[in-house]
């Protein structure tokens, strides 16, 4: 640098102005705010879904209320198909039996393609039976329609037999409920079609 050329004076500006600026820029205003760079945008395929960030391509969702708007949805996920919740696979049994050797008169039953609906019905029915000392169930994973039911009896009846007996009682109760509901529903339809509810004035 030539010693004869004077250095450009630098002046410190207030904190909000962004530090040092050239005194000869912006018409000689030493307190002018320097232009800021625009923030760099993330690539279009980088989207945040829920509580995690992943590289997911932006695709158009055809189920978005029939609109032409674009909606960012993941192109892949680990949610099983709906039919897998009730259709048995190849070589898959509806109920699997396993004896519990650590506890006397106890067994564990695995129900495939069933959920809390049947599990709660069976547990409540078995809980009210005198021969049952313990009954409980658990769902190993919320994405798969499977639950495990554990039963312990007093020894007068096996867990398999008491489960069979409870299932028969539930079937009879549900059949009675279906008949009563159908009867009341038909009566309501007849009453709705008759003027003044069938009462003469």
Written overview of the protein:
- Residues 1-48 are annotated as: Disordered.
- With 201 residues, the protein is an alpha+beta fold.
- The chain folds into two domains: 45-77, no CATH class; 84-193, RNA polymerase, RBP11-like subunit (Gyrase A, domain 2).
- The protein is built from two helices and eight strands, in the order ββββββαββα.
- The protein has a four-stranded antiparallel beta sheet with strand order 5-6-8-7, covered by helices on one side.
- The protein is flat and about 110 Å long.
Summarize the structure.
The chain has 201 residues and is of the alpha+beta class. 23% of the residues lie in helices and 20% in strands. α1 packs across α2.
Q: Characteristics of this structure?
A:
single chain; alpha+beta; Gyrase A, domain 2; two-stranded antiparallel ribbon; 8 strands; RNA_pol_Rpb11_13-16kDa_CS; DNA binding; Rpo11-like
Number of DSSP-assigned strands:
8
Distance between the termini: 115 Å
**So, the CATH homologous superfamily of the largest domain?**
RNA polymerase, RBP11-like subunit
Number of domain modules: 2
The residue-averaged pLDDT reads 75
Q: What fold name goes in the CATH topology slot of the largest domain?
A: Gyrase A, domain 2
| β-sheet strand percentage | 15-25%
- Percentage of helical residues? 10-25%
Total of DSSP H or I helical runs spanning 4+ residues: 2
The gyration radius over C-alpha positions equals 36 Å
Unreliable segments (pLDDT under 50, ≥5 consecutive)?
Answer: 16-26, 44-61
The largest pleated sheet is described as: 4 strands, antiparallel
Strand order of the largest sheet: 5-6-8-7
- By CATH, the architecture of the largest domain is named 2-Layer Sandwich
Order of helices and strands: EEEEEEHEEH
State the name of the first-level CATH class of the largest domain. Answer: Alpha Beta
The chain-level structural class is alpha+beta
């Amino acid at each position: 640098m030539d010693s004869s050329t004077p250095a450009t004076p630098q002046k410190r500006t207030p904190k909000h102005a962004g530090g040092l600026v050239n005194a000869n820029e912006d018409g000689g205003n030493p307190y002018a705010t320097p232009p800021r760079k625009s923030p760099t945008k993330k690539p279009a395929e980088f989207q945040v879904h829920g509580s995690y960030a992943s590289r997911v391509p932006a695709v158009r969702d055809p189920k978005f209320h029939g609109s032409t708007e674009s909606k960012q949805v993941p192109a892949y996920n680990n949610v099983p198909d709906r039919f897998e919740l009730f259709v048995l696979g190849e070589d898959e049994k509806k109920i699997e039996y396993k004896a519990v050797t650590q506890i006397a008169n106890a067994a564990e039953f695995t129900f495939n393609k069933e959920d809390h609906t049947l599990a709660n019905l069976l547990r409540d029915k078995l809980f009210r039976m005198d021969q049952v000392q313990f009954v409980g169930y658990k769902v190993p994973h919320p994405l798969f329609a499977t639950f495990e039911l554990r039963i312990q009896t007093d020894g007068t009846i096996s867990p398999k037999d008491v489960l069979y007996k409870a299932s028969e009682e539930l079937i009879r109760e549900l059949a009675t409920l279906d008949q009563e509901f159908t009867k009341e529903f038909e009566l309501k339809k007849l009453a709705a079609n008759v003027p003044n509810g069938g009462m003469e004035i």
